[in-house]
Amino acid sequence: MVTRLSKFFVRTLREDPAEAEVQSHKLLVRAGYIRRQAAGVFAWLPLGLRVKAKIERIIRDEMAAAGAQEVHFPALMPRDPYQATGRWDEYGDLLFRLHDRKGADYLLAPTHEEAFTLLVKDLYSSYKDLPLTIYQIQDKYRDEARPRAGLLRGREFTMKDAYSFDYTDEGLDASYFAQRDAYERIFARLGLEYVIVKADAGAMGGSRSEEFLHPTAVGEDTFVRSAGGYAANVEAFTTVVPSPLPFDEAPAPVVFDSPNTPTIETLVAHCNAVLDGEYTAADTLKNVVLALTHLDGTRELVVVGIPGDRDVDDKRAEVAFAPAEVEAATPEDFAKHPLLTKGYIGPWSATGPVLGEESATGIRYFLDPRVVDGTRWITGANIDQKHVHSLVAGRDFVGDGFVEVATVRDGDPAPDGSGPVHLARGMEIGHVFQLGRKYAEALGLKVLDENGKLVTVTMGSYGIGVTRILAIIAELNNDERGLVWPASVAPFDVHVVATGKDAAAFELAEQLSAQLEAAGFDVLYDDRPKVSPGVKFGDAELIGVPRVLVAGRGAASGEVELWNRRTGERETLRAAEAVARLIAER
Amino acid sequence: MVTRLSKFFVRTLREDPAEAEVQSHKLLVRAGYIRRQAAGVFAWLPLGLRVKAKIERIIRDEMAAAGAQEVHFPALMPRDPYQATGRWDEYGDLLFRLHDRKGADYLLAPTHEEAFTLLVKDLYSSYKDLPLTIYQIQDKYRDEARPRAGLLRGREFTMKDAYSFDYTDEGLDASYFAQRDAYERIFARLGLEYVIVKADAGAMGGSRSEEFLHPTAVGEDTFVRSAGGYAANVEAFTTVVPSPLPFDEAPAPVVFDSPNTPTIETLVAHCNAVLDGEYTAADTLKNVVLALTHLDGTRELVVVGIPGDRDVDDKRAEVAFAPAEVEAATPEDFAKHPLLTKGYIGPWSATGPVLGEESATGIRYFLDPRVVDGTRWITGANIDQKHVHSLVAGRDFVGDGFVEVATVRDGDPAPDGSGPVHLARGMEIGHVFQLGRKYAEALGLKVLDENGKLVTVTMGSYGIGVTRILAIIAELNNDERGLVWPASVAPFDVHVVATGKDAAAFELAEQLSAQLEAAGFDVLYDDRPKVSPGVKFGDAELIGVPRVLVAGRGAASGEVELWNRRTGERETLRAAEAVARLIAER
């Protein structure tokens, strides 16, 4: 059916919506694809729904090709399964919780690991039933603290979430790669360039975890990659640990006065002034106090020692201490711990307690993996206005363990030996990871194996944010005049425009629309009778259908203009030739 | 793609699920179409999702044919628009309410009149934009007090809801009938017999309102119809009002002793014993005390006077007094109103106050429409153990108005003069109604008309419960062995079964599946290698695909059995003949 713009439920706007921060949000609203209903909650107009349906179709195709079967879970889920895995609490404020008229607790599901696990437990009991991969395309909910950026991070959003079930680790690997391959095909069809980066498996407790990132300077995620093929997001990057150094000959530590040097910069300047040798921030050990809030609500201070030329990376710290929440220690925290001499904290002090021995302060002390035995440091002496130098790791102090919280930098060596890494930014477009047996164990999903023994099932989880992907495609495909859809997801294949007052233009446009429709194209026909060519062209460019066919002045002599929305190219052609061209390039 | 049962995510159950009350619920769970997640909340397995998708496809086809355009609203909606129309409160306990991390109020939408109205207000401003009909197929929420009967009345359910927008009443009529016609086509394609009955427009404030009911003895709704073509649900049935009778000559009322006659039965027996003449319940006026709970929470007692041979019909009373809630008066209510002499209440008393005069009791008194001026009644005297006879309506008492709360009976005259009505039962499968200007007024949806004047838009609302329809089809199409789907919504077109240990059977079944697939059929192929024919046949009958093709013993000589699931007919045919037969009957 040809869609006539005169009857089509769409209105374009000249002004950007006030609440929109990013280009995709502005354009999708202005061009009449979506409308805001509440913060992070949108209604879909016919144009938007068409693009969404095309993305979903591609995903369904590739899921079927990968042997995944579609199911559908409710958004409204009871508390019990989420309680069993601890996520009812872990999700904190991100979870929309509610209760029914009888007072029973429910949630709006942010993801469905529990429900899928229980469904498979309900239906299956034998290794012969496996492998199984099931998925859904479904609306999910997260009560984001700052829902912004339109569909990029909504509070109601559509996800494709798939879950695989195997009874061996090899089986899980096979299921994982089947989904991973499907993702590669999906993003290729969507025209989305991607990098597959190692991601942190973290709180999910699994082993293998990778993100598909679209590399773009405006991305919210930072990742690293080496020329040799290593790629990881910063949370998953692991530091190459240097070899320990001998320290038998090392001189003893020396405490020295260092007035007014609470920062690394002032300390390094002071050292270069009063000590022998030349020092940089890398010679100092910076001790940062962090406050962890554990799931049970208790607050714990910890100190992390990292080379002075690096900072604590919030995201890496979050992963390192998960599921606890991490923040910088507050003045109140310091006030409660007089042993923490702000600006002069060290792992060791000639007069004070040794951090890392709980008996002394009760404060755990963690080290950056680079602080191996034998490395020598200038660091705080735990005495106001004093530092210490020649302090040797492994001799003068030890930590309670190593943590990966320091920033990653351009030039850091990749952990796989493939050379130095470079930092880049990207947007997450998909995530595949191996959950392992965490959910199956918590919910009792076991099957009988070949030997009649009950074994716990191992699972994978595979997500693509459908509405997020749509926004990303819009974010990447636009210009100052509007949206520029890739053909695979465009709401229409061809936008036919009749201009002027000449009946011949409308007649020709009508004929061409019918011909294209008969040839299998989705046609949007701008048949509005009293609208100026300028407005029509502006709308066509804003809406962003890849091909625009204009019947105007030349219509009487059978000529049309064929536009390429992306390149801006415009050709005058015989009408039949234009149709043939469109068919040929399909 | 041929779906292989060996890999298909389905398991059939031998036992009915404990919580299931109705046949559709039992069978949809047993045959592996759905699984319960919470009361009235279900997950969809691949089989169920296929049937649901087929129903949705038919609805989308017919919506497009009727010129309706698809949009999609969030389930999570802010409170404001529902507050503006009063429905935030009116819905009471039926509404799932929740708040976000900032404390803002949200609801899970039970229907979207407000949102559609506001969206049209946002986009449109001129009569030239109209008419418009937009719809969605979307998951809705109602916190039913007794979610039961599986999908027939779920708490999360899928609806097609359409809304029309016009600026004239004639336009609304046209939009209304376009949807009504589409519904007729949809139900015809779904194989669902229907009666279109007048429904109460009631609380929605509109004018025309009709329900599509499927007539069935097990239906939850009662409706009436006449041989002459009248049809209405009992809530919408209107009583034919008799002409007033002259009462100039009528004798004066007489109070008489009537000990131990608090019921109509005992009263009639007593009258026949002590009074002249022969009496029936129809000669008595029964006065029923009802308690209304108004939206603001106040409780009001009212008395309704109806002929003694009828009862108060709860549903008719609900409609008559909407939006107040109605229940029978409690002993506490009577205790608070000593003037109400239980069992002997009348409209009038020689000694007590006249009901209907607020000054006397403060209790409003309503009458059945049959209690016209001049009718004579035996009724309570408002004195314990006493009744009154020869009490004349319009002379001895008047009411505060007429209400349609009395039961409708077989033989009552249809209001359109088309003869006596008969009661029947049905299930609601669709509802079309004219909202009129209620929502547009509450939310300020106006457009400029031809004369440049702002006029309020008039709306219609048109709903089909997708998941409810699916359950109704299952409810109507089953036998003792399982489901029997109509071809238009069956999860597969053909169920191919290979039986026995003979490789030839599996090879032939495989070939036939591929052939049918190539011919455009959705094929489910039972390729399970070590499952007995009995189990396979049992599963095929339970799952209910309309055609079953069995390759068994005869396979080696090229013979198959073609089953008709509905009739039970089984034919032995050459394989090629069976395929040709299936293609021909399509």
UniProtKB/TrEMBL annotation, chains A, B:
<dbReference type="GO" id="GO:0002161">
    <property type="term" value="F:aminoacyl-tRNA deacylase activity"/>
</dbReference>
<dbReference type="InterPro" id="IPR004154">
    <property type="entry name" value="Anticodon-bd"/>
</dbReference>
<dbReference type="InterPro" id="IPR033730">
    <property type="entry name" value="ProRS_core_prok"/>
</dbReference>
<keyword id="KW-0436">Ligase</keyword>
<dbReference type="Pfam" id="PF03129">
    <property type="entry name" value="HGTP_anticodon"/>
</dbReference>
<feature type="domain" description="Aminoacyl-transfer RNA synthetases class-II family profile">
    <location>
        <begin position="40"/>
        <end position="486"/>
    </location>
</feature>
<dbReference type="InterPro" id="IPR023717">
    <property type="entry name" value="Pro-tRNA-Synthase_IIa_type1"/>
</dbReference>
<dbReference type="InterPro" id="IPR004500">
    <property type="entry name" value="Pro-tRNA-synth_IIa_bac-type"/>
</dbReference>
<protein>
    <recommendedName>
        <fullName>Proline--tRNA ligase</fullName>
        <ecNumber>6.1.1.15</ecNumber>
    </recommendedName>
</protein>
<keyword id="KW-0963">Cytoplasm</keyword>
<dbReference type="InterPro" id="IPR007214">
    <property type="entry name" value="YbaK/aa-tRNA-synth-assoc-dom"/>
</dbReference>
<dbReference type="InterPro" id="IPR045864">
    <property type="entry name" value="aa-tRNA-synth_II/BPL/LPL"/>
</dbReference>
<keyword id="KW-0547">Nucleotide-binding</keyword>
<dbReference type="InterPro" id="IPR036754">
    <property type="entry name" value="YbaK/aa-tRNA-synt-asso_dom_sf"/>
</dbReference>
<dbReference type="InterPro" id="IPR036621">
    <property type="entry name" value="Anticodon-bd_dom_sf"/>
</dbReference>
<dbReference type="InterPro" id="IPR050062">
    <property type="entry name" value="Pro-tRNA_synthetase"/>
</dbReference>
<dbReference type="GO" id="GO:0005829">
    <property type="term" value="C:cytosol"/>
</dbReference>
<dbReference type="InterPro" id="IPR044140">
    <property type="entry name" value="ProRS_anticodon_short"/>
</dbReference>
<dbReference type="GO" id="GO:0004827">
    <property type="term" value="F:proline-tRNA ligase activity"/>
</dbReference>
<dbReference type="GO" id="GO:0005524">
    <property type="term" value="F:ATP binding"/>
</dbReference>
<dbReference type="InterPro" id="IPR006195">
    <property type="entry name" value="aa-tRNA-synth_II"/>
</dbReference>
<dbReference type="Pfam" id="PF00587">
    <property type="entry name" value="tRNA-synt_2b"/>
</dbReference>
<keyword id="KW-0067">ATP-binding</keyword>
<dbReference type="GO" id="GO:0006433">
    <property type="term" value="P:prolyl-tRNA aminoacylation"/>
</dbReference>
<comment type="subunit">
    <text>Homodimer.</text>
</comment>
<keyword id="KW-0030">Aminoacyl-tRNA synthetase</keyword>
<dbReference type="InterPro" id="IPR002316">
    <property type="entry name" value="Pro-tRNA-ligase_IIa"/>
</dbReference>
<keyword id="KW-0648">Protein biosynthesis</keyword>
<dbReference type="InterPro" id="IPR002314">
    <property type="entry name" value="aa-tRNA-synt_IIb"/>
</dbReference>
<comment type="function">
    <text>Catalyzes the attachment of proline to tRNA(Pro) in a two-step reaction: proline is first activated by ATP to form Pro-AMP and then transferred to the acceptor end of tRNA(Pro). As ProRS can inadvertently accommodate and process non-cognate amino acids such as alanine and cysteine, to avoid such errors it has two additional distinct editing activities against alanine. One activity is designated as 'pretransfer' editing and involves the tRNA(Pro)-independent hydrolysis of activated Ala-AMP.</text>
</comment>
<comment type="similarity">
    <text>Belongs to the class-II aminoacyl-tRNA synthetase family. ProS type 1 subfamily.</text>
</comment>
<dbReference type="Pfam" id="PF04073">
    <property type="entry name" value="tRNA_edit"/>
</dbReference>
